[in-house]
Amino acid sequence: MLLVNTETIPGREITEILGLVQGNTIRAKHLGRDIAAGFKNLVGGEIRGYTELLTEARREAVERMIAQAEQLGADAVVNVRFTTSAVAAGAAELYAYGTAVRLGPSAQGG
Question: For the whole model, what pTM was predicted?
Fold first, then answer.
């Protein structure tokens, strides 16, 4: 499955637009990460626990978006975007979305 954040894929023709596909996950912080974040606020630096949390959330949201695109028979998802929002104290949603499309053969015949 091709994923791009552009509206087109160089060398490929979009032959059919299948519609919006999306994936999301809601993740909550936990006490251990909050304590580590508090220390990092004092001394500075990357908060690895939060970086890992967001990396996992992005991966899961993208996997869910791809699954939805595959159900539609898509070859690719174009114009992929991410957004986040707070849904409760200490919990945030990561949302991935794009347009599922079918592609014609590549310019090289593949």
Answer: 0.82
Domains of the chain with bracketed CATH: 2-103 (3.30.110.70)
Tokens of 83: 């957004």
Is residue 55 helix, strand or coil?
A: helix
Bridge partners of 84?
94
46-74 tens-digit pLDDT:
767 777 888 899 999 999 999 999 999 99
Q: Which residues contact 110 (CB under 8 A, 6 or more apart)?
A: none
> Residue 73 in contact with residue 102, Cβ under 8 Å?
yes
> What are the helix (H) ranges across the chain?
31-43, 48-71
